[in-house]
Amino acid sequence: MQIHLPDGSVRDLPANATGLDLAQDISAGLARNALAVKVTLPGEKEGEVRDLGRPLPDGSTVQILTWRDDDGKAAFWHSSAHLMAEALEALYPGVQLGIGPAIERGFYYDVDLSAVEGQPTLTPDDFPAIEKKMKELARQNNAFERQPIGKADAVAHFEAKGDPYKLELLEDLEDGSITFYTQGGFTDLCRGPHIPSTKPIKAIKLTKLSGAYWRGDDSRPQLTRLYGITFPKQKELDAYLEMIALAEQRDHRKLGSEMGLFMFAQSVGPGLPIWLPKGAILRETLTNFLKEEQTRRGYQPVVTPHIGRLDLFKTSGHYPYYADSQFPPMFEDDAEGAPESEREGYLLKPMNCPHHVQIYDRQPHSYRELPIRYAEFGTVYRYEQSGELGGLTRVRGFTQDDGHLFCTPDQVKDEFKNVIDLTLTVLRALTFDTFTAQVSLRDPENTDKYIGEAALWDSAEQSIREAAAEMGLETIEEKGEAAFYGPKLDFMVKDALGRPWQLGTIQVDYNLPERFDLTYIDADDTRKRPVMIHRAPFGSLERFIGVLIEHCGGHFPVWLAPVQVKVLPVSDAFSDYAREVASAVRAAGFRVETDLRSEKVGRKIRDAEVEKVPYMLVVGGKEVEAGTVAVRRQAEGDRGAVPTAEFIAALQQEVAEQLGRA
Q1: Average pLDDT for residues 616-641, to the nearest whole number?
Q2: 458 and 450 Cβ atoms separated by less than 8 Å
Q3: Which of 231, 376, 423, 657 could bond to 662 as cystine, CB 3.0-4.6 Å?
């Protein structure tokens, strides 16, 4: 039979050859490192990850997966979850198992210890014993063996074992589609795929515990979710743990508190950040930076209310498409008891676009007016589940740097390219130099979750591809990641620790103009439908700032720092001169504070370092006499004494360079 490889070459193999046979046919080294295969059947676009030992279909295209591939890591971590479950069964006889998938970094297993003798509660103190048992089992080099099984036999197996969670999972499975996987003395209900054996699992670390309601239903039992991560080599685990330690030091929740940027209050509500004075300055500086860029590019500022009539969001499709993540509608009291369809209701806005549509639709437009570009820093609301909230990166109320462009079809590509350029300007100014441009497409297997005609979707998706290519962006495509009303280009940014974050987004939308019957008068005096572009270079201010804090460890670029300069007199005798210096720096447009406490200058320097103030100006007798300031750069130290005017000029030049305006 013939097997096609991703590079276009073809391999002739015996009938029923496996993925391992193919790897060995390519090279012995690849066979040693192979973990699984990705098989794409003839005529299909999407591949399926399978076990290395399964026979390959004739004519298929096959990718050999190793640890370097994301799908290879997923198979490795899925197998590690099974290894952990085997260790738990050995250490806690009677443990009942829920699900144990691979996740972005590692794996978890949901377990119920209530049937274990003594009903123990897992704590981090138990991790070393579980890790030791996992390593012991991994060294046995037990194969992961796949076994198709009939539903009746599968039910009988888990009834005998006394595992109610697996029995419930079986209820949803069709006979003929069920498989078990066994390694050593452990058997689990699983569709796979898995790596060939336990042997490659060398370095093991259990990371944390949490509670998880069975199947996400808070009326069901709460299970213990045990997380872990594994690697083929100890040095890789060591590097990962070092990165995690750095991430903890950079945690925006920790730094945000230390730097006095923001807070949360239970009396206000979870997921609702409160911005403190320095945090408000940070927000305003980012906002003003983008407003200046938008003004240069022809945007018009608008302001819209935080709520809107429910019918508005029904027309847009945000209700009911976003109903699961929205705060419930607010209804007029005089319609109490009437069906929802007959009641006047309002909704906290989950998006700004329906309001911007109303601004466009307030008057007729000629093709000569287009494109029209509206921009707003508008606050929107999502009812995120409490367990999903996380500092600033997942909140219930957040401000989007929202822009909506209304243009003719032949303007779409140029407008999209201009928005790409704006987004790149933002990322460069904030040192996000490593990113992936992801074209987020609809899921062809689940079209019910989208609105609009297929032809419009095809046109929008192609416009994004062409614009990105002409801007020189290397893109990846992800199906199923589109918004419900249109495809988008997402900027997946990597921070200083190599972690990916989705920040800026640009979306082409042919559907909302259709749903709201938007028009313009074309050159031939006929009404035409405009195309709408949604864009948010930051994504949301909250998420962007949270990621930025962790990216730079709180060491903001000078132009963005809430306090850019702190003047430190060495004693009270030089306070007046310190005030003079501060006034001069402030007059030049910089944010400056003066530390007039009766503390030693060393203490003042240490405090300013903790606050991550970019520049400290130390002033004493010599500086007063010479009319200079002793300059210290945060985290770098002494830069020597210079006249105040010279320091200000150098600071102005540094800021201009950071903003690309030198």
Answers
A1: 94
A2: no
A3: 657
Q: What is the pLDDT of residue 341?
A: 61
Q: Which one of the listed residues 225, 318, 356, 404 is annotated catalytic? A: 404
Going by C-alpha positions, the residue among 185, 188, 154, 183 that lies closest to residue 171 is: 154
Q: pLDDT by residue (tens digit) across 62-117?
A: 999 999 999 999 999 999 999 999 999 999 999 999 999 999 899 999 999 998 99
Cis peptide before 55 (omega within 30 of 0): no
Choice among 51, 402, 490, 595 that is catalytic: 402
- Give the separation between CA 383 and CA 369, rounded to whole angstroms: 38
Of 166, 278, 373, 534, the active-site residue reads: 534
Residue 66 DSSP SS3: coil
Q: Which pairing describes strands 565-569 and 592-594: parallel, antiparallel, or unpaired?
A: parallel
Residues 6+ positions from 623 with CB-CB distance below 8 Å: 574, 577, 629, 630, 641
Instruction: Compute the C-alpha angle 79/494/229, nearest 5°.
Output: 20
Which of 166, 318, 382, 632 is an active site residue?
382
CA distance 46 to 64: 15
The 10s digit of each residue's pLDDT in 6-44 is 998 999 999 999 999 999 999 999 999 999 999 999 988
Give which of 106, 108, 218 is closest to 98, Cα–Cα.
108
Catalytically annotated residue among 373, 396, 488, 535? 488
First to last CA, the chain: 63
78 is annotated as an active-site residue: no
400 is catalytic: yes
Exactly one of 63, 183, 326, 400 is catalytic; name it. 400
Inform me whether the pLDDT recorded for 288 exceeds 90: yes
- Is pLDDT of 337 > 90? no
Q: Please state, in angstroms and rounded to a whole number, the distance separating the CA atoms of residues 424 and 142.
A: 50
Distances (CA, A) of 152 to 160, 170, 176, 188, 563: 12, 10, 11, 15, 69
Q: Is the dihedral of CA 574, 575, 577, 582 positive or negative?
A: positive
How far is residue 539 from each of residues 43, 342, 414, 492, 544, measured CA to CA in Å?
37, 36, 21, 11, 7
| Nearest-10 Cα torsion for 499, 500, 502, 507 | 160
Among this protein's residues, is 368 annotated catalytic?
no
Judge whether 314 counts as a catalytic residue: no
pLDDT of 432 reads: 87
Residue 382 falls in the annotated catalytic set: yes
Q: Exactly one of 190, 353, 407, 552 is catalytic; name it.
A: 353
| pLDDT tens-digit map of 407-450 | 999 999 999 999 999 999 999 888 888 888 999 898 877 777 78
Q: Given its phi and psi angles, is residue 32 left (phi above 0), alpha (psi -120 to 50 degrees) or beta? A: alpha
Helix (H) or strand (E) holding 610: helix 601-610
In order, the DSSP letters of 400-466 are EEEEEEEE-GGGHHHHHHHHHHHHHHHHHHTT--EEEEEEEE--TT-GGG--S-HHHHHHHHHHHHH
